[in-house]
Specification:
Elements lengths: L12 H11 L4 E5 L4 E5 H17 L7 E5 L4 H12 L3 E4 L6 H11 L1 E7 L3 H5 L10 E5 L6 H5 L3 E4 H6 L15 E6 L9 E5 H11 L12 E4 L11 H8 L2 E4 L6 H11 L3 E4 L1 H13 L9 E4 L6 H11 L3 E6 L6 E4 L11 H7 L3 E3 L4 E5 L5 E2 L7 E6 L16 E2 L2 E10 L4 E7 L4 E3 L2 E3 L1 H8 L5 E11 L3 E10 L7 H9 L10 E4 L13 H9 L5 E3 L1
Parallel strand pairs: 1-11, 3-4, 3-5, 4-8, 5-6, 6-7, 10-11, 10-12, 12-13, 13-14, 26-27
Antiparallel strand pairs: 1-2, 8-9, 14-15, 15-16, 16-22, 17-18, 17-19, 19-21, 20-21, 21-22, 23-24, 25-26, 27-28
Helix pairs in contact: 1-2, 1-9, 2-3, 8-9, 10-11, 11-12
Length: 544
């Protein structure tokens, strides 16, 4: 091998921390408090990161110790994002919306020893505290009042601000191998127990470089980033590290995730870039349609986690001037793997541009992608062939933590479980999850396509389509719909609406009108719950 002359410089979270706090020391982290925002500069946050690392070391946190966070998107959570991995420990972001038994499982499975918890949700953790076998210390942020947590556990409970006050800035950061574990996150919405993904320092840094690129999010110091997507949901899609790397200001929403407060935050803090799942933006759009909301500061919204309805993008753009771009990824991909910016030469704000933006996303640099048939044949990128999407790259996981799951990994590729096609120029179009695609009489029906079309109907707020048993066709689609308030739209009317847009044989005969489509812990439609409710006879099904 003819070797290069380049330095073997480690790609670590500490590198991102140093760069942001020195080069962009005056950039601001603002945390929304409902009627105002508290702020701190990067330099001030950096000093607090030093103090947090020193405090955690005094609590016994060492190299590879897992430190959990049970928190909203706040300045304190950002401080933990840097302090824990930069000191050589492992950040484990805990999903605050998990069922209690799943929360117990992931904390015990990861062997968390310290958990940093926001005092406003400490009561949720108190419900399971007695079952946590490895946690010896809880660190409470906010007012520091542990509430019910103090009665539920014999573990040590300390106050976040008291810990920091006892330390000095200037922590001596250790040298950390770039391939060492930096953070971990457990998947949601799976069958069985959640599965752990462990990110390295190297993968996190490379993912950050990837998403600040001009053809992805094009982040820079002039931006103010609003991460609505939770910091426990696949690292808030990489926004915390990427924004810090380029010196963008932060607008942290804290616990204020309802449409009204989010719109107030936008008008007060004037973010330029944001990210959240479609269910959040659906709520925001309905609120904005009834109120005069100024979105003029926002240049880009990245939306993903599930398919983004074209009607949602068109509604925001036509009525509020807000541009939504669809992205695709998963916990296993750090998470961003594709984003649907239109290709060169497409006229802005034209129907053709929206056609491209309505696709799942164009595969981004650093990710390799292929589609594979059931027999293992690699299929062409011809916009026609449909197969399971497989990916590989420097920020794609090669395994689950303490769970080999060989059916998900082979020959260096991750099987995503998503089914779709790819255009010759690299645009992915996911038609369904492998477990959700509907096979009717030997033909495939895309539940995603039907859902997106239904949510374009003016009387539909939410729609989810699932496959249910059928004596003649083996399986047929069931449309589960949330009507807009005051609407009495019928199953027959919705069937007719779909019949003008898809082949008639794809239109559901069975319909159920529900108050709300059930959601997973990260805001995706939970189809397994709908299928279970149908099987149990709990849905009032009518025919069209």
């Amino acid at each position: 091998m003819f070797e290069s002359t380049m330095q073997d410089f480690p790609l670590t979270i500490a590198m991102i921390l140093r760069h942001g706090r020195t080069v962009y020391g005056s950039s601001v982290v603002a945390t929304f408090e409902g009627d105002h925002a508290r702020t701190a500069t990067y330099a001030e946050v950096g000093d607090r990161v030093d103090r947090l690392a020193a405090a955690l070391a005094r609590l016994g946190v060492k190299e590879s110790t897992r430190v959990g966070t049970f928190m909203w998107n706040t300045q304190e959570h950002l401080e933990a994002y840097f302090a824990v991995p930069a000191m050589g420990a492992v950040l484990h972001t805990l999903n605050i919306r998990l069922f209690p038994e799943q929360l117990v499982y992931v904390i015990n499975h990861a062997e968390d020893e310290v958990v940093i918890v926001d005092e406003s949700i400490a009561a949720l953790l108190a419900k399971v505290a007695a079952e946590l076998t490895t946690v010896h210390t809880f660190v409470v942020t906010g007012s520091g009042d542990p509430g019910a947590l103090a009665e539920a556990t014999s573990a040590r409970i300390v106050t976040y601000e008291d810990l920091l006050a006892a330390e000095l800035p200037g922590y001596a950061w250790p040298e950390v191998d770039e391939r060492a574990a930096a953070a971990m996150c457990y998947t949601s919405g799976t069958t069985g127990n959640p599965k752990g993904v462990v990110y390295s320092h190297r993968s996190s840094v490379l993912h950050s470089f990837g998403i600040v690129a001009g053809n992805v999010l094009a982040l820079d110091e002039n931006d103010r980033v609003l991460p609505i997507v939770p910091m426990f949901h696949a690292n808030a899609w990489g926004l915390p590290y990427a924004a810090w790397l380029v010196g963008a200001d932060f607008a942290m929403p804290g616990r204020f995730l309802q449409a009204g407060p989010l719109c107030a935050l936008v008008e007060q803090l004037r973010p330029t870039v944001s990210g959240a799942v479609p269910t959040i933006w659906n709520d925001v759009l309905r609120h904005a349609d009834d109120h005069d909301v100024d979105f003029s500061s926002v240049r880009l919204v990245a939306c993903g986690g599930s398919a983004v309805p074209r009607s949602l993008m068109e509604g925001f753009e036509s009525r509020h001037g807000l541009r939504i771009v669809q992205g695709w990824g998963m916990t296993e991909t750090s998470p961003l793997a594709a984003i649907a910016h239109p290709p060169r030469g497409v006229v802005a704000e034209s129907p053709e541009e929206m056609d491209w933006r309505a696709r799942t996303g164009r595969v981004m640099g650093g990710v390799e992608l292929r589609i594979v048939a059931d027999d293992g044949t690699v299929l062409p990128w011809d916009d026609d062939a449909v197969g399971e999407i497989e990916v590989r790259g420097p920020w794609i996981t090669a395994a689950y933590y303490r769970d080999p799951s060989p059916e998900k990994f082979h020959d260096g590729w991750l099987r995503t479980g998503d089914v779709g096609s790819v255009s010759p120029n690299g645009y992915v179009q996911i038609t369904d999850r492998a477990k959700d695609v509907i096979k009717s009489g030997g033909e495939w029906i895309s539940s995603v396509e039907l859902e997106n079309l239904l949510m374009g109907h003016p009387d539909v707020v939410e729609a989810s389509v699932v496959g249910v048993p059928d004596p003649r066709w083996d399986e047929r689609p069931l449309g589960c719909v949330v009507r807009r308030a005051g609407s009495e739209v019928t199953a027959a009317e919705l069937a007719e609406y779909l019949g003008d847009r898809v082949a008639r044989w794809q239109v559901p005969e069975r319909w159920a009108f529900v108050e709300e489509v059930p959601k997973t812990s990260v805001g995706k439609f939970d189809k397994k719950v709908l299928r279970a409710r149908h099987a149990a006879g709990e849905l009032a099904v009518e025919t069209a």
